[in-house]
Amino acid sequence: MGTTSFKYSKAFACLAICWITICIGLFLFFGIACNEVKLRLFAGIFLLIFIMMFVYFFWNHVRSAFRNETAIEFDEEKVSIYMTGRTVYWKDVVEVSWEYDKWKFLLFEVVDGKNITVGVGRIAGANKTIYNTAQDYFRQALLNEGN
Predict the structure, then answer these.
(1) pLDDT score of 89
(2) Which end of the chain is more exposed for a tag (fewer CB within 10 A), N or C?
(3) How distant, in Å, are the alpha carbons of 39, 43, 60, 116 from that of 53?
(4) Which of 19, 46, 66 delimits the end of a domain?
(5) 110 and 84 together in one domain
């Protein structure tokens, strides 16, 4: 089957940058516009939190997205999840499925009971394509294991 890889999503990176920047701008505006010290302090604390979120997200995702780095890679033996630094071996996987919360997650149910989820929103490509790719590699691993 070879190796199939998916890159980080540049669209998700841009959307997140816009959202965080808007929040920073709003808290900065409220911090400047407020006359009361308590409100300025409140706005300043949230401003610092959003600036830290921006730096963290930029360092962990945006930089990788615009460097065109691989987010997840499937091969016959394993799944390498570069977003989290984890590797899942097909021999340890019991099932591959979707998990729905506010976002869609690719769920790898493993033998030891520690399920591994991957947020597919951060990955470039159609969610269905990513899921079908995972299913195909899992199915192939089951067939190889049976031989």
Answers:
(1) 93
(2) C
(3) 21, 15, 10, 24
(4) 66
(5) yes
